[in-house]
Amino acid sequence: MELLENQIENKRLSSAYIFESKNSTYNLDRALEFSKKVFESYGLDTRLSENPDFEIIKKDEKEKNISIKTVRLLINDMYLRPSNGKIKIYVIDESERLSLEGSNALLKSIEDAKDYILIIFTTNNSFSLLKTIRSRCQIISFKSEKENEFVDREELSYILSEIISGNLSFYYKNKDFFSKAKDYKEEFFIEISNFFNNLIKLKYYREISIENKKILFYLKKIEKLPFDSIDRMIRKTEEITKGFKNNVNFDLAIENFVFFIYREGINVESSRSKL
């Protein structure tokens, strides 16, 4: 929560967030905690249950998904100014349950949201949301108390930076590292996606909160990658993650991904050498 607290303190809040971990209850707890801190920063009442400018949107108990009717009611409410005159906060709980129709309807409202609107999506998998929604949100990935720290981010960053830099042998030397990720493959690819998202933040926004100096070094090593190339790598991680739901073979998926990012790196170097 340190990053979020810094944003509150510096009054640099995003208009939309995605809170993500494998524990739905934990996600909602963090969203409630964050909402209280935001209201407090405005000098407002933090009792959420009595706050007309705070709402949790969730699926009806009789429904499998968050209905389009619920989404439309939310959108209509977003047009009303906050009674406190400062801010309204909406938490869309378990947002992976949004229907495609509801997601598309909500997308335009996010794009056109007034500056007093703050939306928090909670989900166990940010890839379950529309890419166009994700691109308009700041993604905060939590590790709940019930989750283990599966992925060695430093080692992962090192290996990815070497492969992209043209050292394909690094993949074969570290095959065991990838093989161990088979039991938590979705989390593994979320970390890979986070690596590339951090690269974009470093390259274009210069806003990155990474205390690990080695990870920062590995990111800077491939900082010259163009945006289109980084975006293709992110889309590749999304494609593979979706494939896991259709029982795509993990070992083949890893090899496919490794050769993909290796070729991206080689193509960039080849283009530079021709200039």
TrEMBL record:
It holds the Pfam family DNA_pol3_delta2. Gene3D superfamilies: P-loop containing nucleotide triphosphate hydrolases (3.40.50.300). Signal peptide: none annotated. GO terms for biological process: DNA-templated DNA replication. SUPFAM superfamilies: P-loop containing nucleoside triphosphate hydrolases. This is DNA polymerase III subunit gamma and tau domain protein. It comes from Anaerococcus hydrogenalis DSM 7454.
